[in-house]
Amino acid sequence: MNIAKRNFDAVIVGAGGAGMRAAVGLAESGLKTAVISKVFPTRSHTVAAQGGVSASLGNSEPDDWRWHMYDTVKGSDWLGDQDAIEFMCKQAPEVVIELEHYGMPFDRTDDGKIYQRPFGGHISNFGEGKPVRRACAAADRTGHAMLHALYQRNVRANTQFFVEWLALDLLRAADGRVLGVIAMELESGELTLFQAKATLFATGGAGRIYHSSTNAFINTGDGLGMAARAGIPLEDMEFWQFHPTGVAGAGVLITEGVRGEGGILRNASGERFMERYAPNAKDLASRDVVSRAMVTEINEGRGCGPNRDHVLLDITHLDPNIIMTRLPGIREISIQFAGTDPIKAPIPVVPTCHYQMGGIPTNYNAEVVVHGEAVPGFYAAGECACASVHGANRLGTNSLLDLLVFGKSASQSMIEYIRRLPAAQPEIPQAEIDRTLARLARLDGQKEGADVHETRLAMQRTMQNHAGVFRFKEMLAQGVGKILAIAEDVAQIQIRDKSKVWNTARMEALELENLIEVAKATMVSANARTESRGAHVRDDAPDTPEHPDGRDDASWLKHTLWYRDGNRLEYKPVTLKPLSVDSVPLKKRAY
Q: How far is CA 311 from the centre of its chain?
């Protein structure tokens, strides 16, 4: 096969918030920068983020980045690395104001400052005060506005976009250095080697491993699959956030900003039940706490509807003008997907898979780190990366902040690295190219085998049933066996359409090969972690005086590392020492 080759200073895979923020820094510094994306950049999944981006600007009331750091460490159930968390929270005001200067159309207060709303888990005075207004919002379309602002800035900087291309595999030199990626143009089916001095993965999450998800169909864990096949471990993959408010039956996201504006969760009897689970924060407790409370209400028979399988999110008490100006998209989603006008009746909601806390292991410089050493030329940022600022549970609005802070950090690290390199670059080893060609040849030559759609559905249902909001010892063990069996089917999937031009069947098969790596990492890691922490809650690790919330710090205050080779697990310590302030001490997490 004749394979074209292109050379760049930097190659970025993924055109969401992290990828485009990094591209701005690289292109504006004069480096030749390529961005590879399966979809047009402004259709990346960042467009679905609704509620806001967190920063301690203090525009409506006093706030402090140290309070933000405390909330993030607490929200992570102390599994977050405190050096990276300090770095992110301290940088937050700067990157948000920078984004504003790029043209981001934030909502404004009466005196012209960026409008901020409360969000779950964001509390004043080191968790001792009341919910604080920290989420900088553009109505309920914050991610949409962010993507357009960043895309326009990249057009100005002459970033080169390769739209509707699918990256297939990471390319590495014999010494382990990353040399770029091999990618397929979807329109023609042709392959191209993108050789680069530095490569950034900003490929987003993999929520499509679950049957019910707020994630777009493009969220297939491509960066994670490529990293795993290249020998890079995946970190903390047992931790998946289930957003409390997906539209019942549809999974479409209803932003936490609805509760930030005053929305209330109610059960079948109309009770505001969160007062029993989080007496102080109530409906604005962290997402894992709210999700478990909702599932408990449903499991104990207090769910709503004919099947008692959801609860209600009530904003009928709010001024209709607030709903139409601050939450216009949510009203539209509710009418379209729930058949309910939230001005007149509550929205039926249920927890649904939303966010991946784990990912490719990095430090706060966005360098990919294995066994304490940075992998030369390889960087990751955004949801596909694990810095780890989210630990066992992410606070709402910290995801968009993660994109900005670590997208910028990645660009700065890559610029420094590229400028230190000699002019001559090593050749890409033929064995690296042959590995991808063999995958494609197997797919094209397969005459019989598993159906892609059926196999993907079996994986999604297995993940939903065996590693959902609540997890059970026997179910996790069974889940490992089922996922490994499904992985064998994935190795034999077949496609009937062997054509090259816009072959979506081939693309979906290749995406499934990435998804199954994430599913294996999740199930194996979850089965091994015999405690409850953050979003990972097990029935055999209940709340006791020795282990508050079922958390076992003596045994499990450590990060999981899953290796594809043999489904092997290793562990590494959590960084409890921040960069410049005192450590946030361990304590029971309560709201």
A: 25
